[in-house]
Every structure is written in structure tokens, then in C-alpha cells.
Design a protein that fits this description.
Strand order of the largest sheet of chain B: 3-2-4-5-7-6-12
Order of helices and strands of chain A: HHHHEHHHHHEHEEEEHEHHHH
Oligomer: heterodimer
Strand order of the largest sheet of chain A: 1-2-3-7-6
Structural class of chain B: alpha/beta
Shape of chain B: globular
Number of strands of chain B: 14
Strand content of chain B: 15-25%
Bound molecules: thiamine diphosphate
Distance between the termini of chain A: 75 Å
Chain lengths: 395, 360
């Protein structure tokens, strides 16, 4: 492990730059920031201060809950309760840090994989899972916790994040926007446009890439040959930083510095977390086709929970009793998800036509009436004991 | 070179509107009306912002945003980096955070990089969130041909947008409508694709902009979104048109009148929502219809209109509903575009083909 001195100062630690930034202050360091190693030992990496123990402990509790949420959701897919679940197992430190570094006035822009981040931010898990359950597209009100809808079209949400930040800036609000994406998404044009717009308009956005090494089956080397994804930042004139994505302490420090910098008028920055997707892309994916069990095994010892647990236990901040409490809390979250998803939600077909235009067009009124009639006919047929859906053309 | 009788510009120019010599004192161009509508909307509501490529200092390549930066400041009317998806995606976020962005796509065919943002987010966000997120965005697109523009400057892209649920799609054809419809679009809580027929930018009407502003601000202007209008009454057949083709349809109706045929012209104004009522009332009265549109006809808005009219007015029809549209080819080069554009003659031929001998 190299020492603090030969790594220099974290590029996000500087205050608000004036004028054109110079290249060396924008480049990420050669090695990802790591504050706690995989054995739970502090690294002495002096580029960022170690976050306060209590703060880490609070986030650790969310980490434990995050893992339980991932496990529970995976189980619910197997039981057919969720249509699909893109797990963030192994990436929970990124998920938790992204949510907890933000204040109440800030906005989070997640992707489909960032369910744990959204829940950690305070959104009701059952509302979050509406999308993956198939009840509606987005189940929560984005304004309630300032969490945008989970985006499935890659990188598009990064531009929305810029827009929200730009509007906030024009309104004189101190809002910071943290926008998440994966390594694959950095190849999309919208990624480029979002970073460029954010830099040109100097808006308070933190772009947070979870580099988990794969975009479905495609490894990072097929996405980019840049020295790192964080190096892309310099092309836009914003600082980039690399961080160990399985080190909760480092994530809190680096993302926290990026948020502070944005809030202080320092403009946007790009943070790349090096992590790994321990499970398949979704339940529909066969990960054995593109990576070996040994590849995955190599990441097991770097587990974010195990590492942070050792660190906190050694400090005496986490006791056995404390662990039991956290485990119980995580169980409670999982139980609430399980029982919530065990009750079938009534989907209302009339709603299909409700949210297309503020006022239904005459065409939509006609189509809604058609569906109503169809359903009434089916109901009549059912009442009469005949199956309304068979017998060829109903008309 | 163009077939239209109204608003034919000097070919290939993108000059300042409203400076023609010898115009009547109150003659106002379509372009000027749009400019006034933007300025009035920005004056009336501080949440209204205008951004895009070259819309600031230059005032837009068609000068539609002329003077807005000077009047409202760079925060309200500003140039963006050259990136259409960026413009559109940023508009989504700004709208999410309380603004009413009006964006300019410089030309029809240059809006395509933004297509994903339009289709996946602008159109769907309110639906995805059950109406919790409204996106009152106006996407202004200088559109369609007839100006002698080179390739990728003359596309009729309305069908792409009209096919996308969630988008309101408007195409004004008169100076008054240009003003009122843009104000209405900006006031709409829903996203609007606002198609500005480029060849009409320099067409003129005797209107008093101050009067239009008063009428709109007092809530006296009749609603235009979703409402077609009878642009010329007639009894023998109906021409259904919108945007750049309306003047051509009117010219055809005038020519037909000289031959003794009374042709009604419907100006849709609003493609989505579609005004079935006005269109069908006219066709039921006349019993004959021709749809006139500049876009390629296959799988087009014109096709949709034909289908709707057949479905709803079948028993009133004395002849099949016909279409006069652009050919199913990429928009042609300037020297060839007059072969492509629906012309008065082509419309009159279609009217002649409406089985007049079978008239009951
Ligand atoms: C614009 C777009 N193209 C393709 C897809 C299909 N798709 C879904 S996830 C994915 C891989 C994304 O990889 P990455 O950005 O690294 O995120 P990760 O899944 O690893 O979190 C692809 C190709 C999509 N959702 N959006």
C-alpha cells in the first residue's frame, strides 16, 4: 500500500476553482482512494480524512439492510413476486454512500440497479419495487424524497440531473444533485453530453459511476480504453476521482467531498467507484457465459460488509449486541418487503388512460370507454358462467 | 420555385423577418408573431426559459428568439453546447424542477439526436410517475421544406412525434395562430412539439400584436390545441391540411372556385390531439375529402386522417378519401423539391378524381 505522500491530495478536496482549471488538479490519482483495506485496517491514505466513526457506523447499518434487501428481492424473483431484480449485491457500499452523503434538499438520480440507494434515501421499499413488480413504471413520488424515477434507458437520467441542478442554481437554491450510472453507460452519448453541459453551465452535479466491470456480458475493456473512467473528467474540465467501491469509509469521504465542493460553488465532478457485480445482471442473465466462478471468487474477500464490520469491531464502535440490533432492523425491512409483496395490488385498467395528457383527448376517452365495455362484457360472461375470452371473434 | 402562394421566401435565405419593403404598417410576419409570443410568455411567467443552439446573441438562425437575451438576460434565453440530446435532457430536468423550458431544435432533421429523450422521457415521464412529474416543455422545431434548403434541413417529422403518446403536436399555418398557439403551448402543462413551417416564417398578415397579447392575457383567445378550424368554407369537398400545406390547399380551393367547385379547407392546427369533430362534420357535409400534407404519405399523419375519416364518415362518403402528399423518398434537393411538394395542380387532380359522376 503506497503512502499518502506519493498519492498527492485528492482532486475533490480543493475548493471552488476560479477560471480555467489546470490539468493536474483535474486528474484522478493513479490508485483508487482507499481508507480501510479488505482486512478492515485503516490504510493511512492521507488524501481524504477518515470519516467520523459514528457516521461510518450509521452507514454500516444501512449496508447490512442493503444486503438483506438484495437477498430478499432475489428470493422474491424466484417466487415470482417480482418480475425482475437487478441486484447490487457486492455494490452496497456505493448504494449506501450515494444516498447518505446527500442532504434533504439534494436530489438523487438512480438507475435500475440502484434500488438500495433509493430505499436508503428513505423511499418506501414497496413503492420502489412497484417498477420491478410490474404494477406501474415508477411507484413513488419523485418529489417526496427528491429521488428521480429509476432510469432504464442508459445515461439519459444524467442529463435530467443537470437540468434539475441548473434550475436549482437559477433559483438560488443550494441543492446538489448526485447522478448514478454504470460503466457501460459511460459509452452513451448522453453521458458525454451530460458531463459537458454540467461543466459548461458549472452546475452542482456529482456524477457517480459504479464500475462493476460488466455491462451485462461486456467487460470494461470493450467499453473504454481510457486509463480509468474517472480520467474522462479532464476532457470536460472537471475533476475526476477514483475510489475503492467496496470501502464504505472511502466512498463517504470522496463522495462527501464532491458534494461539498458542488455545494460550495465548485461545480461538477466525476467519481468512479471500483466495485464488482457479484451476481448476474438480472435473473434473466447467465453470468457463467462470460465470467468464471474464480473471477467472482476473487472479489469475495473484498466484501464491503465484512471489511467495515472488522473495522468497526476493532474500533469498539460495533458490539455483538449492536450487530444483533442491526440484523434485526434489516430483518424487519426484509419482512416488510416480503409481506407487502405477498398481497396482490389491484391494478386498475382505467388508469391506463389517466396519465397520458393532463386532460384526456377525445381519442383516449373513446378507447377508455371501449376497454370499459370489454371488461363489463367479460364480467357479464363470467357471471353467466361462460368464458368470455373464448369462442373466436367477440364482435 | 415553390408551389405555395403565401409566404414564399427568398430561396436559401435565413434572414431577419419582417423587413420587407412596401408592407402595410401593421403587416406582421409569422416569425415576428412567434418572437412576440415568446417574449410575452417570458414576460408573463418568470419560469419560462428559452434555450438551444444560437438562440442567444444571434437570436436563432431564423431570428425567432431575436432580442430575448437582451431583454430577459442570459439566464432566461441562452445558448447551449451543440448537443440536441443535451438540450432536451436538460429541459426534462429543468421542468422537473419548476421551470417551463422552451427549446429550439435548429432544424427538423437535427432534432433526431434528441429523439430518445423526447420519446423515452419527455413523452413518458408524466405517465411513468402517474402524473406526479409534469413536463411543461415546448420543443420548437423549424420544420418542413419549400425554402430551397439543402439536405437534412427540410424533413417533415410530424409522424414520429404524433405516433408517440404523451406528446401534443401542433403546426400553425397562420400568423395569428402562430402567436396564439405558441402561447397556448407554453401555458400547457403537457409537453408540446411545436412545428414551425419554415416556408411560412416570412408570410404576413395584418395583425396587431398588442391586441393579440391582450386577447390572450384576458383569456379571450379561443382554444387552439385540439381544435381544427374551417379555413375556407365550401360545400362540394373538403381539403384537410395542416402547417406548411394549408396555404397550398387554400390556393387549390381558390382555383377550384374558378372552375365552379366549392371546396372547404380544414386547417387542423393541432395534429395531436386530433379534432375528429370538426373534420368529420365537414366531410359529412361535403361527402368528399382529400388530405393534403407535405410528409411522405406512407404510414403518415395523412394516412391516419384517411383512416379516421373512413371509419367515422363512411356512409356520408361519395368517394374514397384521397391523399396528396410528398413522395416516399428522402426530402429532395432544392432543384427537385418542387416536384415533390404537394402542388395546387396535384390537389386539383385529386379533387377531380373524387367520382363526381357518381354523385347521388
Ligand atoms: C440505451 C440503452 N441501451 C441498452 C440497454 C439495455 N441494457 C440494460 S442494462 C445494460 C448494461 C448496462 O451496464 P452498466 O451501465 O455497466 O450498468 P450495470 O448494469 O453494470 O449496473 C444494457 C445494455 C438500455 N437499458 N438502455
Amino acid at each position: 500500500m503506497s503512502t499518502a505522500t506519493n498519492k498527492g491530495r485528492g482532486s475533490l478536496m480543493g475548493g471552488a476553482p476560479g477560471g480555467t482549471p489546470s490539468a493536474h488538479t483535474l486528474l484522478p490519482s493513479a490508485e483508487p482512494v482507499q481508507l480501510v483495506d479488505q482486512d478492515g485496517q485503516p490504510t493511512g491514505d492521507g488524501r481524504y480524512p477518515m470519516p467520523d466513526g459514528k457516521r461510518i457506523l450509521g452507514a454500516y447499518g444501512r449496508l447490512v439492510a442493503g444486503r438483506r434487501i438484495n437477498d430478499q428481492a432475489n428470493a422474491l424473483v424466484r417466487q415470482g413476486r417480482l418480475a425482475v431484480y437487478p441486484s447490487s449485491h457486492g455494490q452496497e457500499a456505493c448504494q449506501v454512500a450515494a444516498a447518505v452523503v446527500l442532504g434533504g434538499e439534494d436530489w438523487l438520480f438512480p438507475t435500475y440497479r440502484d434500488t438500495v440507494a433509493v430505499i436508503t434515501r428513505g423511499v418506501d421499499p414497496l413503492e420502489v419495487l412497484t417498477l420491478l413488480r410490474g404494477d406501474w413504471h415508477a411507484g413513488y413520488d419523485p418529489y417526496e424524497h427528491r429521488v428521480a424515477t429509476q432510469a432504464t434507458p442508459l445515461a439519459t437520467q444524467l442529463l435530467h440531473a443537470v437540468g434539475v441542478a441548473h434550475a436549482a442554481k437559477l433559483r438560488g437554491e443550494s441543492t446538489v444533485v448526485l447522478a448514478m450510472c454504470g460503466d457501460g453507460a459511460t459509452s452513451e452519448g448522453d453521458f458525454h453530453e451530460a458531463l459537458n453541459f454540467a461543466a459548461v453551465f458549472h452546475v452542482p452535479v456529482v456524477f457517480f459511476i459504479q464500475n462493476n466491470e460488466f455491462a451485462i456480458s461486456v467487460p470494461l475493456k470493450n467499453q473504454s480504453v481510457a486509463p480509468s473512467l474517472a480520467h474522462k473528467a479532464i476532457g470536460y474540465g472537471m475533476p475526476g476521482e477514483r475510489v475503492d467501491g467496496n470501502d464504505l469509509a472511502a466512498l463517504l469521504a470522496v463522495l462527501g467531498a464532491a458534494v461539498d465542493r458542488a455545494r460550495d460553488g465548485g461545480g461538477p465532478s466525476l467519481v468512479e467507484a471500483h466495485t464488482y457485480r457479484m451476481q448476474a445482471h438480472t435473473n434473466a442473465d447467465d453470468a457463467t457465459r462470460y465470467r468464471s466462478a474464480e473471477d467472482v471468487e476473487r472479489w469475495v474477500p473484498r466484501d464491503p460488509i465484512v471489511r467495515m464490520r472488522s473495522y468497526l469491531r476493532a474500533l469498539g464502535l460495533l458490539t455483538e449486541e449492536g450487530e444483533r440490533v442491526l440484523a434485526d432492523e434489516a430483518d424487519a425491512v426484509a419482512a416488510a418487503i416480503r409481506s407487502g409483496l405477498n398481497t396482490e395490488v389491484d391494478v386498475n385498467p382505467a388508469e391506463l388512460f389517466e396519465y397520458v395528457y393532463t386532460e384526456k383527448t377525445s381519442q383516449l376517452r373513446e378507447q377508455a370507454a371501449l376497454l370499459r365495455e370489454e371488461l363489463a362484457r367479460d364480467a357479464d360472461a363470467e357471471a353467466a358462467g361462460t368464458d368470455g375470452s373464448t369462442g373466436g371473434d367477440q364482435r | 420555385m415553390t408551389q405555395t402562394t403565401l409566404g414564399a421566401p427568398a430561396p436559401g435565405t435565413a434572414g431577419s423577418p419582417g423587413t420587407g419593403a412596401g408592407t402595410a404598417p401593421r403587416a406582421t410576419t409569422f416569425a415576428k408573431a412567434l418572437n412576440a409570443a415568446l417574449a410575452d410568455a417570458m414576460q408573463a411567467d418568470a419560469a419560462v426559459l428559452m434555450f438551444g443552439e444560437d438562440v442567444g446573441t444571434l437570436g436563432g438562425v431564423f431570428r425567432i428568439t431575436d432580442g430575448l437575451t437582451a431583454r430577459f438576460g442570459e439566464e432566461r434565453c441562452f445558448d447551449t453546447p451543440l448537443a440536441e440530446a443535451g438540450i432536451m435532457g436538460m429541459a426534462v430536468g429543468m421542468a422537473m424542477n419548476g421551470m417551463k423550458p422552451v427549446v429550439e431544435m435548429q432544424f427538423d432533421a437535427f432534432a433526431y439526436p434528441a429523439f430518445e429523450q423526447v420519446v423515452s422521457h419527455v413523452a413518458k415521464m408524466p405517465n411513468r410517475t402517474k402524473g406526479k412529474v409534469r413536463l411543461p416543455i415546448v420543443i420548437r422545431i423549424p420544420y418542413a421544406g419549400g425554402i430551397g434548403g439543402v439536405e437534412h434541413h427540410c424533413d417533415s417529422s410530424e409522424a414520429y412525434y404524433a405516433h408517440t403518446p404523451g406528446l401534443t403536436v401542433l403546426a400553425p399555418a397562420t400568423v395569428r395562430d402562430a402567436y396564439f398557439m405558441l402561447r397556448e403551448a407554453i401555458a400547457s402543462p403537457d409537453p408540446v412539439v411545436f412545428l414551425e413551417p419554415k416556408k411560412l416564417y416570412w408570410s404576413k398578415e395584418e395583425v396587431d400584436l398588442a391586441e393579440l397579447r391582450r386577447t390572450f392575457d384576458d383569456g379571450q383567445a379561443p382554444r387552439r390545441i385540439g381544435r381544427a378550424v374551417v379555413a375556407r368554407p365550401g360545400t362540394d369537398a373538403t381539403l384537410i391540411s395542416y402547417g406548411p400545406s394549408v396555404p397550398t390547399a387554400l390556393a387549390a380551393a381558390a382555383a377550384a372556385a374558378e372552375e365552379g367547385r366549392s371546396i372547404e379547407v380544414i386547417d387542423l392546427r393541432s395534429i395531436v390531439p386530433f379534432d375528429d369533430e370538426t373534420v368529420c362534420a365537414s366531410v359529412r357535409r361535403t361527402g368528399r375529402a382529400v388530405v393534403v400534407a407535405e410528409a411522405p404519405g406512407f404510414a403518415s399523419v395523412a394516412s391516419e386522417i384517411v383512416a379516421r375519416v373512413q371509419e367515422r364518415c363512411f356512409h356520408s362518403l361519395a368517394a374514397p378519401v384521397l391523399r396528396v402528399t410528398g413522395f416516399d423518398i428522402p426530402y429532395p434537393s432544392p432543384k427537385l423539391e418542387h416536384f415533390y411538394l404537394p402542388s395546387v395542380d396535384r390537389i386539383l387532380d385529386a379533387v377531380d378524381a373524387l367520382q363526381w359522376e357518381d354523385r347521388p
